[in-house]
Amino acid sequence: MATIKDIANKLGIAVSTVSKGLNGASDISDEMRQLVLDTAVEMGYASKKMRTSKTRKVCIFIENMDYENVEQFGYEIIVGFKLSAARRHWDVSVVPTNLNMQTQEKYDTYMLKNGYSGAFLLGFELHDDWVKQLGKTTVPTVLLDNYIERNTHVGYVGTDSEEGIDLAVDHLVSLGHTKIALLNGSKNSMVSAQRHQAFVNSMRKHGLEPEEKLMAYGYYVPDCAKDHVPGFLENGATAIMCASDLIASGAITEVVKHGLKVPDDVSVVGFDDLPIASQFSPSITTIRQDRIDLGKSAFLLLDGLIHDVTTSKLLLRAKFIQRDSTGPVKNRD
Amino acid sequence: MATIKDIANKLGIAVSTVSKGLNGASDISDEMRQLVLDTAVEMGYASKKMRTSKTRKVCIFIENMDYENVEQFGYEIIVGFKLSAARRHWDVSVVPTNLNMQTQEKYDTYMLKNGYSGAFLLGFELHDDWVKQLGKTTVPTVLLDNYIERNTHVGYVGTDSEEGIDLAVDHLVSLGHTKIALLNGSKNSMVSAQRHQAFVNSMRKHGLEPEEKLMAYGYYVPDCAKDHVPGFLENGATAIMCASDLIASGAITEVVKHGLKVPDDVSVVGFDDLPIASQFSPSITTIRQDRIDLGKSAFLLLDGLIHDVTTSKLLLRAKFIQRDSTGPVKNRD
C-alpha cells in the first residue's frame, strides 16, 4: 500500500507538503491539497490511513429520504446506528448530500479529507455518482437497500422484502382476493426491482398470474397514487399492495375519492410500518421494517468491514402486521 | 408467555414440582421431568427462561462435518464463533449430534433442559428432524447454509455462492473454456441448490448453455469424483467446477487416471480454500469462504436473535483465488 513518501515521489514534491495536504494544514494552496488528496486516493493510501486512524469517526450520508422527526423513515435507522456506534465508542456525523456535492468531489477523496473510517449511505439511487464509484472504493461502506457487486469493502443491509411480500399476498389471497395490484416505489432503485420480482413470484406461488396493468412504479410520496390507482380500479383490482405506508395512505385517499370504501370495496396494504400506518383511518395493514434494527445492523456490518470482515449482505425479517385496511373481497361488478 | 404456575395448572401438579423439573432436581422421576419440559416448551416457556437466564451459555451442534483439526472445514468456523463469543463473555459448548439424538428429544426440549440460550447448527441437512422443527422453534438459532422461512427466531449465515461461482465462471470463460462441468455437493442441502442455480445463471450470463450431462450432485468427499468425472470427460468437458476443494482433489486424481493433465487438458476449480487447496499438486484454483468470519458472523447474528434483532440472512463475500489447476483451454479432439 502507498506511503506518504510514494505520494511525494509520484508528485515530485516534499513529503512535508504531502503531509500538509493530508492533514488539512492551511499553508498550502487548495489546488495542491486537492492534488495530494486525489493522488493519495488513486494510489490506495486512503484505506490505510482510515484503518489506522485514532479518531473513530464514521458518517451517515443521506439523500432522498426524510429523517428529521420520528414520523419519518430515516429517523429510527439513524437512532439505531448511533446506539450501536456509541456502545463501541465511535463518533457519528450525519451528512445530508445531493447530486451537486457528489459531482464536486469523489467519494473516496471526501472520506479521506474528512477523516472518516467508513460510511453508511441512506436513500441513494443507482445512478448517483457516488454509487457508481462504489464498485472500486476501498473505503468501508454500507448501503441501505443497494448492492454493489464484487467489492469486498462494500456491504448491503436491508429487509427481506421477498418474505414480507409473500406474507401479505398470503393474507390477501386468504381473504379471497385474486385481482391484486402492486404500486411500487421508484424505478431507479434495486429494492423496487426486488419487490416487483417478489410480488410476481408470490402471485405465481399462489396460482395467480400477475397482470401488467395492475403493476406500476411510483415514488415514495402519497401523491403518486393518483397516477396509478384509477387505472388499477378500472382494471378490476380489489386489493392494492403499496411499497410504503405513505403511498398506501395516498391509495386509500384515491379509492375513497372514487366513491369506494376501504376495506369494504378495496383492500390496501402498506410497507414499513411508519407511525402513520397505525394513525391513519382506517389503520393500515402493513409489512414492518424494524428501522432501529436496520440501523444497528448497518453499524455492525460497517464495524466488520472496517475490521476486514467482508460481509456482503445482511437482511432482516419483515413482519406482517394486520390492521383495518384489508378485508374479505367483495365482487365489485 | 407461560409462567411456572401456568405449567403447574395445566398439568395439575405443584409449582414446586414444575420448578424441580425445569431445574434438573434429582428427587422427581425422569418421566415427570420430561413431561414438565415438554409442556414448558409447548406453552412457550422456553424462550422466556432462555432470555432471562443469567448463565450465558450457547452451543454449536455439528453434524456431517469434520472440525477436529485445522485442515477441516468446521475447525475455523468454530474458532471464529468462540472468539466472538468470548469477547462478549458467553460460554460455548460444541455438541456433536446425529439422527438418533434428534429422534430421542425435541430440539426445544433439549435446549431448555441444558440451559442454552441459543445455538449455531453446522452441517445439518434439510431432512434432519431438528431442522424440520425449526419452523416453529422459539429458541434463537443460527444455521450455516440453511434458511428457515417465516420464523423470526432463526437466522441463516453463509457465503455468497452466487458471486463466487460467477467469478470462477468468468475466469474459465476468459481462458477460452465453454464446456464447463459442475460437480456439486449433496443434493439434500439448500446450498447445493443455490450453487446449481448460480452456475446456470452465470453460464447463461456468459452466453453459454449449461448441459445436463455436465452437471451432477455428489458428496463432500474426494471419492465422489469417480462417479461423475468419467462422464464429464466423455461429454467433452474442458473444465470442472467442484463444490469443495476435497471434491476438486478427487476430480484432479480422476482426470490424471484418464491419462490427461491438469491444467493442460482439463482445468479444475475448487470451493472453500481449505489448506489442501494450496498444498495439493497442482495447487487448486478455488473460491474462498472465510471460515473465521463465518463463525464470527454466526455469533453476532445469534447474539442479535437472543436480543430480539430479527436478522434473516447474513452472507459473506466469496473470494476467487487463482492457482495452478486452471489454464487456457486446449481442444481435446
Can you tell me about this structure?
The N and C termini of chain A lie far apart (70 Å). Helix content of chain A is 44%, strand content 16%. The mean pLDDT of chain A is 92. Chain A has a six-stranded parallel β-sheet, covered by helices on one side. A four-stranded parallel β-sheet of chain A has the order 7-6-8-9, with helices on both faces. In chain A, helix 2 packs across helix 3, helix 3 crosses helix 7 and helix 4 runs parallel beside helix 7. Chain A has a domain of 129 residues: Rossmann fold (3-Layer(aba) Sandwich), CATH 3.40.50. Chain A contains 14 helices and twelve strands. With 333 residues, chain A is an alpha/beta fold. The longest helix of chain A has 16 residues.
